[in-house]
Specification:
258 residues, TLC domain-containing protein, transmembrane helix, 10 helices, 79% helix, disordered C terminus, membrane, At5g14285-like, mainly alpha
Length: 258
């Protein structure tokens, strides 16, 4: 975990001192935000690919699950299984990113409580899963597959907004908001319900994850979903108002904030 923190800190500094050094003066808030995007692009893209591949190969090795009952049995067996070394390595990698990015928000962008709370909930979920229970890593895989799939597009969208790249922003804005609405609005609640069925309503779960902790995990995910829906609905509203004022909507004149 410490070396992963060093790695992401290095990425952050690379973005701040090299990638965006000429775009903003030293100390500019947008320069810090763009540096954070450098970390997020690598983390979100790499973890979503790794975890989607892990999810797929694990299911294939277990026989594929042709019907709903087989699928439920497979899912329950994986959720209750002990963490593998690879799963723990991925959790440490992701936790390091969220911790470094949390420090970024606390120091340079403290007026973003949604992101701060999201990072606190996510980090505590993975830390307790990794170092306390030794179980539940597969639940983080499910959440990352649906939660980080929009990461690359979101960060490119954010950078286009920060840099006032009107053409890129206009190209990405609506597709990104639609995609972001689908994942937190549809897929993530469905995945969360599957986790709730196991962690909160099955006897098997209590043997590996204490009920209060499982309740906290699900509550954290629910809060994350609520924050994401609030965030995307706010941006939909602001986009609609901006278009109503000016049909030729440009990032340079946008009131949107990332």
């Amino acid at each position: 975990l410490p070396w992963n923190c060093v790695f992401f800190t290095g990425l952050y500094l690379l973005g701040y001192w090299v990638v965006f050094a000429r775009r903003w003066p030293r100390g500019a808030v947008d320069r810090f935000k763009a540096a954070s995007c450098c970390m997020s692009i690598l983390h979100g893209t790499s973890t979503s690919i790794y975890m989607l591949n892990l999810f797929y190969t694990d299911k294939q090795q277990d026989g594929g699950g042709e019907n709903s009952s087989t699928m439920k049995f497979w899912l329950a067996s994986r959720l209750g299984a002990a963490n593998t070394r690879f799963e723990e390595a991925i959790m440490e990698y992701s936790t390091a990113y969220f911790l470094v990015d949390l420090v970024h928000y606390l120091l340079f962008v403290p007026n973003q409580p949604l992101f701060v709370l999201h990072h606190v909930f996510t980090s505590s979920y993975m830390l307790s899963c990794r170092f306390y229970t030794g179980h539940g890593a597969f639940s983080t895989i499910i959440l990352f597959v649906v939660g980080e799939s929009t990461s690359f597009l979101q960060n490119v969208w954010t950078i286009s907004l920060l840099t006032h790249s009107a053409k890129l922003f206009n190209l990405l804005n609506v597709p990104f908001l639609i995609m972001f609405s689908i994942f937190p609005g549809v897929l993530t609640p469905w995945a969360t319900w599957q986790l709730c069925l196991y962690f909160l309503f099955s006897r098997e779960a209590s043997a590996v994850v204490p009920f209060p902790l499982a309740h906290y995990w699900m509550w954290s995910v629910f809060m994350g979903i609520s924050g994401s829906l609030y965030w995307v609905s706010t941006h939909w509203t602001q986009s609609a108002l901006a278009v109503a004022r000016n049909p030729v909507f440009h990032a340079r004149t946008s009131t949107l904030r990332c």
